[in-house]
Amino acid sequence: MSGALSGKTALVTGGSRGIGRAISERLGRDGARVAVHYGRDETAAKETVAAIEGAGGQAFAVRSELGVPGDAEALWAAFDEQAEGLDALVNNAGINKAVDGTLKRIGEMTTEDFDRLFAVNTKAPFFIAQQGLNRLRDGGRIINISTGLTHGATKPELIAYAMSKGAVDVFTSTLAKDLGPRGITVNAVAPGAVDTDMNAGWLRDNSEARRMVSGISPLGRVAEPADVGDIVAFLASDDSRWVTGAWIDATGGALL
């Protein structure tokens, strides 16, 4: 398949579901060979790979549970078995809930909850990028998925999640300065509420919540995963060559 990313190789962490799947499929349509990373859901990863290949693209699955010792090493070992060199790294994988699967305000958070959020959302992308630098070709791209919550404190029950992504924002801008001499750009994309499986319980199946979220955006609707995937595709392409260190508001104007 020819396109803006023909001949390129991309790795998308958490690339099998939700926003990650939309990113993977879009990069595949643009011609990239996509490494679809997953932690546990092998079925979803295979479905995403099949969807990319069914559309004429190329993809393969990479398994590594994030937030555990050796996660970055395991990810790159699996990647190296199937590819040589990288052109775009998308740090998309993330969690927003405590260990017990609930959302917690500061008074309810445990050290285990806090450490888990930072291990997956902050530590993993840091070391995945660190260990990927010798694989990432000059002129490459690093795209980190942040959140609009780092610029708008609207969800007290997501305080630790927002903090973990705030660190990613700093990581983005500082790494952009560090890697500029290699022609590598580093940017962050910050979505708001998106209609994904992760949000299905409170958003997709709740008409009142959908009306509320739609009303926050001047565009008057809830974001779809492809809305974010298309922004990432731009940042992965040569068209974005003069954009680096940026925090891209992908909330549909919810912060206005």
From TrEMBL:
Q: Which keywords has UniProt assigned to this entry?
A: Oxidoreductase
Q: Per UniProt, what is one GO molecular function of this protein?
A: oxidoreductase activity
Judging by the UniProt lineage, the source's domain of life is: Bacteria
Give a yes or no for keyword ATP-binding in this entry. no
The similarity annotation says: Belongs to the short-chain dehydrogenases/reductases (SDR) family.
Cross-referenced PANTHER family, in alphabetical order? OXIDOREDUCTASE, SHORT-CHAIN DEHYDROGENASE/REDUCTASE FAMILY (AFU_ORTHOLOGUE AFUA_5G02870) (PTHR43639), SHORT-CHAIN DEHYDROGENASE_REDUCTASE FAMILY PROTEIN (PTHR43639:SF1)
- Protein name (Swiss-Prot/TrEMBL): SDR family oxidoreductase
